[in-house]
From TrEMBL:
Residues 24-83 form the HTH tetR-type domain. Residues 46-65 bind DNA. PROSITE patterns: HTH_TETR_2 (PS50977). This is TetR family transcriptional regulator. One of its GO terms (molecular function) is DNA-binding transcription factor activity. The keyword Transcription applies. The keyword Transcription applies. It comes from Streptomyces arboris. Keywords: DNA-binding, Transcription, Transcription regulation. Residues 14-25 have a biased composition (Basic and acidic residues). Residues 1-25 are annotated as: Disordered.
Length: 198
């Protein structure tokens, strides 16, 4: 993983040195343990427990991930790639509105894997400096392309914005998270969304 860019007065921007092998192993262990902990306990899982299970101290965790959202961003990169791949697959679909709603449904399903993710993504959508912005911004761009195509086909109203759709999608994921004994809730709410888009 590339480190942050270092800037000193009068010097060119240069990336930090690559991670040492032991640091890379610690990073990978922390992300793997965090992925399991977030899936089992939600995104508010104890960072101290994550560090301990990864076999490192809490200071090592914070050196790699200065705050919880930075760790969440690292954990969700695989899912982000999957959602971006799905948007590319749907980009040429014959029914652009259905493709958009299918993609929004994939976001809801992903957010449902980690309790607390939908709420975190909702807050990140309002703050481009958030450590979760690297998750939110590519999703926003991918969704904007699907929305534009659906609007150009005449199947989605012109006044619908991708920001509103992503907030609505995260709200659906949050509602589903709060109603675990109603597994059909997210699907029903997405169908209502589809009707409102037309």
């Amino acid at each position: 993983m590339a480190g942050p860019i270092s800037m000193e007065p009068g010097t060119a921007r240069s990336p930090e040195r690559p991670m040492r092998a032991d640091a890379r192993r610690n990073h990978e262990r922390l992300v793997g343990v965090a992925r399991t902990a977030f899936a089992e306990h939600g995104t508010d899982a104890s960072l101290e427990d994550i560090a301990r299970q990864a076999g490192v101290g809490i200071g090592t965790l914070y050196r790699h991930f200065p705050h919880r959202h930075a760790l969440m961003n690292a954990v969700f990169q695989d899912a982000l790639r999957s959602l971006l791949d799905r948007s590319r697959e749907l980009a040429g679909a014959e029914a652009p509105c259905r493709a958009l709603v299918d993609w929004l449904g994939a976001i809801v399903a992903h957010a449902g894997e980690y309790r607390g993710l939908a709420r975190a993504l909702m807050s990140a959508s309002q703050d481009e400096t958030s450590a979760l912005a690297p998750c939110h911004l590519p999703l926003r761009d991918a969704g904007a392309g699907l929305l534009r195509r659906a609007q150009e086909s005449g199947s989605v109203r012109a006044d619908v914005s991708i920001d509103d759709l992503l907030q609505l999608t995260n709200a659906i994921a949050l509602a589903a998270e709060q109603s675990p004994d109603d597994p059909e809730l997210a699907g029903r709410l997405l169908r209502l969304t589809l009707r409102g888009l037309k």
